[in-house]
Every structure is written in C-alpha cells, then in structure tokens.
UniProtKB/TrEMBL annotation:
Keywords: Metal-binding, Zinc, Zinc-finger
InterPro entries in the cross-refs: DNA_primase_core_N_sf, DNA_primase_Znf_CHC2, DnaG_primase, Znf_CHC2
Protein name per its UniProtKB record: Zinc finger CHC2-type domain-containing protein
Chain ranges of the Zinc finger CHC2-type domain: 37-91
Origin superkingdom: Bacteria
SUPFAM superfamilies named among the record's database cross-references: DNA primase core (SSF56731), Zinc beta-ribbon (SSF57783)
Residue intervals passing through the bilayer: none
C-alpha cells in the first residue's frame, strides 16, 4: 500500500490547484468585493449567498454554516473523499506528480476512515476463517494437521490461524 503523500507535493497541489476553478464546478460564484467571490453554499441550504471564496488566499468560508478551509478541504467535503483521495484528484487536474513516503509511517491526519475500514475488514476476515477452521467439515484435515503439530483450538485462535473454505479461496 502506498504511504503518505510527501508534504512538498501536498503544498504544490495547494499552490497549483485554483480554488476558484474547483469551487466553480459546484457553485455559481459572483464578485463580492475586492479579492472575494460569493455563491450559494453547497454544504447547507440557503437562498442568500453566504459562501465566500478568496482565491488569492486559497480559502473558502461560509458565514451561514461555518464550513471553511482550503481547496483540499473543499474537495474532501464536497466529494466525500479522504485527505489522500482529495489530494490525488487535485493533483490530476493541476498536473502535479505525487510522491509517497516510503515505509508507510503513521498516516497522521489522513484517512482515519480508510484505516478503520481496513482494520475492520481484516478482523472480520480473521473471524470468518477462524470459525471455518472450527466448524466446517471440509476443514477437518486442517484441524487434524494442526492438532498433529500440537496446536489446539485455543492456540489456533491466539495465532489467528484460520481455514479458507474452497469457495472463498482467491
Ligand atoms: Zn454553508
């Protein structure tokens, strides 16, 4: 799995991606004074524009619901993406080549949702294969093999040993 996107690439994406262009794909903006554009907020229902973009600063803010941030925050929220996905999408549209940290260090501030889903998927899979080892008739050979090696059920569970039913093998 790819590691974290390098910080300098994230900075480059922020610099190159025009928040005005990105927001205009979702919101009709009109001039609202020097350096400021206004439109109807995509994050809450409103009839009078209180969603403000400052292209020079690279930020947006809604005075109605309080949403605000930079171009990456906007893409995350409007398209329901995690940080990495939002940066990847903006990198494509702004022509930035991304580099990733090697070693997959802590992905702090990034994609906690994706990590949690992966952990849950692994846990569910381990449980499924663990149950299969204990309960399935076709897993008897596996059980006998483990018992022959001195593994009882508790040890199999502790080491996360499971059995993949024939139909579930990939
Ligand atoms: Zn709003």
């Amino acid at each position: 799995m790819a590691g974290r996107i390098k910080a300098e690439d994230v900075a480059l994406v922020k610099e190159r991606a025009s928040i005005e262009d990105v927001v205009r794909q979702h919101v009709t903006l009109r001039n609202a004074g020097p350096g400021s554009l206004k439109g109807l907020c995509p994050f809450h229902d409103e009839k009078t524009p209180s969603f403000t973009v400052r292209p020079a600063v690279g930020s947006y803010h809604c005075f109605g619901c309080g949403e605000g941030g930079d171009v990456i925050d906007f893409v995350r929220k409007v398209d329901h993406l995690d940080f990495t996905e939002a940066v990847e999408r903006l990198a494509v549209s702004s022509g930035v080549e991304l580099h990733y940290e090697e070693g997959g260090g802590p992905r702090q501030g990034e994609a906690p949702g994706r990590r949690a889903r992966l952990v849950e998927a692994h846990r569910a899979a381990a449980e499924f294969y663990g149950d299969a080892l204990i309960t399935l008739g076709e897993a008897r050979q596996g059980r006998d093999f483990l018992r022959g090696k001195g593994f009882d059920g508790a040890a199999a569970k502790r080491f996360g040993v499971g059995y993949a039913p024939v139909g579930e093998r990939t």
